[in-house]
Amino acid sequence: MQNKSSLQKNNPVPHVVIVGGGFGGLYAAKAFGNKPVRVTLIDRRNFHLFQPLLYQVATGGLSPGDIASPLRAILSGYKNITVIHAEVRDILPGEKRLLLSDGEVDYDFLILATGVHHHYFGNDEWVKQAPGLKTVEDALEIRRRIFLAFEAAEREADAAEREAWMTFVVVGGGPTGVELAGALAELTRETLKKDFRFIHPPEAKIFLIEAIDRILPTFPVELSRKAEKSLQKLGVLVYTNTRLESLTGNRVTLIRGQESSELQTHTILWAAGVRASTTGEILSRKTGVALDRNGRVMVNPDLSLPNFPEIFVIGDLAHLKDQNGQLLPGIAPVAMQEGRYVVRCILGRLKQTSVAPFRYRDKGSLAVIGRNRAVASFRRVNLFGFPAWFAWLFVHIWYLIEFDNKLLVLLQWAWNYFTRKKGARLITGHPPFPRIKNPRQLT
Amino acid sequence: MQNKSSLQKNNPVPHVVIVGGGFGGLYAAKAFGNKPVRVTLIDRRNFHLFQPLLYQVATGGLSPGDIASPLRAILSGYKNITVIHAEVRDILPGEKRLLLSDGEVDYDFLILATGVHHHYFGNDEWVKQAPGLKTVEDALEIRRRIFLAFEAAEREADAAEREAWMTFVVVGGGPTGVELAGALAELTRETLKKDFRFIHPPEAKIFLIEAIDRILPTFPVELSRKAEKSLQKLGVLVYTNTRLESLTGNRVTLIRGQESSELQTHTILWAAGVRASTTGEILSRKTGVALDRNGRVMVNPDLSLPNFPEIFVIGDLAHLKDQNGQLLPGIAPVAMQEGRYVVRCILGRLKQTSVAPFRYRDKGSLAVIGRNRAVASFRRVNLFGFPAWFAWLFVHIWYLIEFDNKLLVLLQWAWNYFTRKKGARLITGHPPFPRIKNPRQLT
Lengths: 443, 443
Prior knowledge:
The structure is a homodimer. Chain A is of the alpha/beta class. Chain A has helices spanning 2-10, 23-32, 54-58, 71-75, 136-155, 159-165, 175-191, 221-234, 279-287, 332-350, 386-404, 407-419; strands spanning 15-19, 38-43, 47-49, 68-70, 81-85, 88-92, 97-100, 104-106, 109-112, 116-118, 167-171, 205-209, 236-239, 242-248, 251-256, 259-264, 267-270, 274-276, 297-298, 311-313, 318-319, 365-369, 373-377, 382-385.
């Protein structure tokens, strides 16, 4: 400890440690750029992932490199920021210290922004059969399964088995599920239309399963209805009020009210539930802070912890209500605003000035449906169809460019849109081949 | 057998089976497009890989999707061509049949174009320590190792160990080795220059090891010398007349004449030897055809087999000499010309017309050194430096566009060149973290 305080004397500038380089952590780091603090950003990955476009990687429209930017490159201009590629194993709040996968790091202020991971509601055995969409690896695994399914269908001689390969079930009607189902519909109806000789990809069945009575439940009811109609027009079979009861082999059992039905499929994609990352549990154990039932940390109105004012939690990991008592949603704009807010808060404390509690400024929500339709809900306006899609495109260009000048990514993607091409539909990873029960004889 | 001949009666159009969708197989398939034959193209991958740019994926300049095109998409316009995603397990030349990973396929003509894989000259245990660069997965593994090495060096407190992380050894001075070493030099000298706080990436040591007395041995001597000087100017340590003696843990032993020296490194990249794919061995066992010492198939002047005129071997898998008695090199232009030739040959036979033996038209060789230099050897002209690089760029744009309209890929890449950015330097795959012996304490 003596060692530490002598080091602190030599380093009078306060040390802020940020864990997690998602939207919350990265925006906090950027806001600290060239400010009178030393910042260490720790992440398990060496890149920031532009998650709103991850469904495009999963469906073969973009490559991982198109939607990821190296954290070091984004922050290289700020000499007061150090990026560390490591994993946090433990938090010692009394000593203001983190234990990493290798080594340790001491902090004066700590910002936790480690986000969420998938949650299978107690059915953890589903994880292998129904991959979720959170990481680059997730997206490549989903891509592998989607494109292998068509390869298998092309080779399979048995009609029922072929239909199972051409049946896709997306579980969860939130923005990710809607965007995945819409992209799958476009892929099968347009992109792959002429690519096979023994199957007709537009005949693929795409199910979207949602437990409550409408998809996109965080949007106005009117937009939910319009989104549902749009998906149906694209050929997606939307099942609301429907729960996934079981998953055995290739058999999916669905429950709708008293009715139960079965589907045969080889491809189930999970977009239903998330749970806060384990950092929340460590924090709760070590500081006594309460967690909500999804593992999110119950923070003060300024996003700090009740007994540890130097620890902040932001983004999807934080549980905070807005002025109307509504829980703030786990979306990028909330995380970004929270990231910037804690920077103001910490810099304010260093100057002994007080900062008002965090207040979320809702700039609206957006979700894409297929190729050139979207739903958008702004404070006073709801948009739908092409105008909403255009708003969506504009917002995404704006943020992608802010990071890494990825204008060309958007250009490339626009090109794919107009030519209906999908540039990145590679099957990589293992196993390279599906198991085909009755291979078609080729003479 | 009766079944088969009745099927053949119902299908009077001859069935050509092509194995391998590289430059040879794909150009053959395209040349058969809408011709009076039925074609089945079999590949283990669902995409054609533009291998000359693979070193760009390995060094974080491009994504796999940028240099790969789905075989189905390239060939979807030709109704007489079927693409099959499968692996060939055996060849039954008497029955004109292939056994696949699943199912079988009968042929009237067979074109084998399965290429080569790495070869460690009897040191197969080196494969894990020194990955080669042939597949997308190889490139991503090399990319992972390169960028993890810098992350580890940044975290490592011990100077010697840090130097080992910042030492890169490229084995093999052919075009792939030269391009890898040049790209590594650019990466460390320019792209990563400002990204770290505890290390200075331009201090990284990059060794290029070549067993004979000059790099790029298939080029004129003058260009070898110029390429060597260019690499040295970029900071690459070029060791000719040097053999890799052993590889133990992180220790590399090199032999130069009587001298032996040792290096400590965590990153060794293999660009030294290739050997024909196992299809050659199967073919030899089943047809008695001779193989050369690298496993290549000794073909007739028309690329067919001595006793099986309906079987052709093309590309890197074929051993054929030109009119001067020189072995044709394993490069894309040879494979492409051979692919087109066998199509003429087969269509000629169907029309009972004879086709002259294959003759390679040498259009020159190209290799890139770093960011905007190259060496180019055309029939009468040798180019060097920027003009050669420009020629290189033109040739690659030409072929990339021919496949998939990838003009935007080249634009993006040009953008990276001018901004010195590297857009795809993601660490993906396992393990996600290096083992750091003495982690630096961060306070």
